Amino acid sequence: MKLSPPFDPVDSVRRDLLTIAAAAAVFAVLPVCPAAAQSSSATKTNLPAERTAEMSTITTKDGVVIFYKDWGPKDAQPIVFHHGWPLSADDWDAQMLFFLGKGYRVVAHDRRGHGRSAQVWDGHDMDHYAADAAAVMEHLDLRNAVHVGHSTGGGEVAHYVARHGQPQGRVAKAVLIGAVPPLMLKTEANPGGLPIEVFDGLRAALAANRAQFYLDLPSGPFYGFNRPGVTPIQGVIQNWWRQGMIGGAKAHYDGIKAFSETDFTEDLKVIDVPTLVMHGDDDQIVPIADSALLSIKLLKNGTLKVYETFPHGMCTTHADVINADLLAFIEG
Fold this sequence. Notes:
- It is a single chain.
- Helix content is 42%, strand content 14%.
- The chain has eleven helices and eight strands.
- An eight-stranded mixed beta sheet has the order 1-2-4-3-5-6-7-8, sandwiched between helices.
C-alpha cells in the first residue's frame, strides 16, 4: 500500500496562496461580461475568441430567443438543417461538417423549447416552428438555400418552404428525410396512419420518466438498435439523450401533437422547388407507407429515394451514404 507523505501545514498554506494568486491573475485579464443581452441580433460573449465559440441568437416577434449555428463562407450557397424531435441542431454534426468541408455555408437552429433556445411554455406548434425558422433565415438574409429536414424537421421544412421561403424567393431545393408529412395520425381521411393511442403513449412515457424514456427510444427503434444483429452504439445513444434532456419537457410534450396531428397535405401541394424525399424502409418511428410514399404523390417536383433496411436515424447510422446522396442532389 502506498502511503501519503506527512502533512506539512506550512507547505499547505504556501500552495493555497499560490492557487489564489493564480486565480486572481486569470480573472484580472478577463473582460467583464454584460448582465444581459438586450439586442435581438446575434449575441457574442466577451471572452477571447480562442477561449470560446460564438453564441448566436435571434429574438422572434413574440419574444422567443432562438439559438442558431452559422458556419462557412458567407458568400457560399447555404444549406439549412432542421432537426427532429426532441433533439437540437447538434443532431446534424455529421452533415454540417461534411458540407462545410465541401465549401458550403451550413446553418442550423434549435427549435423553440429545444436545445439552447428559450424554454417558453407556448407556441409549440408547426405554425410557430415555421415562423421561427423564417425569422432566422430573414435575419441572416439567406437566399438560394437548400433546406434539409429530418422527421419533425421535415414537417418544419414543408411548412416553412410553402408558407415563407418559397413566397419570399429564398429556397432553391428541399429535402425531407424520414419526415412526418403528409400526416402521421390515423383519421378517416388517413386510414393508414398511427392511432392516437401511440402518441398518447409517448406523452405518458415522457411525463412519467423523461430521462428513462430518452434512453429507451434511441436504444431501441430510433436507430434500429433493437434489430437482430445490430450492435448498439453507446455514444450515439448518449448523445441523443444529451440533446433531449437539455430541451424543455413542456416543449417536447406539446411537440408530440405538432408532429403527429399537423396535416401537411396543402404544403406539399404548393411546393414547386426540386424536393428529394429520403426514407428508410425499416423506419420504426415514421413508417414509410404512410409518409414518404404518400408525400411523393403530392409534390410537383419530387424525387423519392428509399433505403433498404435503414432506420429512422439513418443520418447518423449511415451518414456516409446519406451525405453522398445529399451532395449529388444539391449539385445536380
